[in-house]
Amino acid sequence: MELLKGVSPLRYEVTLNDALTPLARTSLADADLVRLAVRDEHAFEELVRRHAASVHRLAASTVGPGAADDVVQEVFISVHRNLRGFRGEASFSTWLHRITLNACARALRTRATLTLDDSPELAAPHDPVRAGEQAQLRARLAAGLQSLPAEQREALTLREIAGLDYAEIAAVTGTELGTVKSRINRGRAALRAWLTRAGITP
C-alpha cells in the first residue's frame, strides 16, 4: 500500500477496486461492496450475484413464480439507481428487502388477481409423479400464504423464506419486535389451519 500514499480517499478506493480480483470481491462485506458499486459495475454485479436468489425467493412467495423475475429486475434497477443515497443506517440486506417488498406490492396492485400456479419448477424428468406432487404442494402453500392478512404474510415470508431474524424483520417492516413475533405466530397458526383444511399435514 506504500504506492498509494498521498492518494485522495476517492482515488484510493477506485485504485483499490481496480486491483481487486473477482475472488477478492466475494470476500468483501456488503457495506464495502456498496461503496465500490457506486462507481464500479463489477462490484455491483457481485452484490447482485450475492443477493439475487434471496430476492427471487421473497418475490416468488409474494407475487408468484411467474412474476418473480420481473420483480427481481425492478429491484436491482432500483438498487443501482439509489446506491448513492444509501446511508448505511440499516444493513444493505434490510434495505434490499424493503425495496423488494415495495416492488412486490406494486406488482400485486397492477393485477386484479394473483395466479397461484404460474410456471411451477419441474422435478427431474425421470420422476413425473414427484414433479406433479411438488407442483401441487407449492401451489397449495402459495394459496395458503395468500389467504393470510397482508401483514402476517409479509412477516411470515420474511422469516420462513427470506430467512431474516426477528430484529431484521422489524427493521424491514418498521414495526416493533413484539408485533413481528405476534404476526409470525398468528400467521403460522392460520397457515397450519388452512393447510389442514386443504388435506395437507403441516
Protein architecture, described:
The structure is a single chain. The protein is an all-alpha fold and 202 residues long. The chain folds into two domains: 7-115, RNA polymerase sigma factor, region 2, helix turn helix motif (Rna Polymerase Sigma Factor, Chain: A); 127-202, Winged helix-like DNA-binding domain superfamily/Winged helix DNA-binding domain (Arc Repressor Mutant, subunit A, Orthogonal Bundle), CATH 1.10.10.10. Helix content is 70%, strand content 0%. It has ten helices and no strands. Helix 4 packs across helix 6 (92-109), helix 5 crosses helix 6 (92-109) and helix 6 packs across helix 9 (166-173). The protein is globular, with a radius of gyration of 20 Å. Residues 47-112 form the RNA polymerase sigma-70 region domain. Belongs to the sigma-70 factor family. ECF subfamily. Residues 140-191 form the RNA polymerase sigma factor 70 region 4 type domain. Keywords: DNA-binding, Sigma factor, Transcription, Transcription regulation. This is RNA polymerase subunit sigma-24.
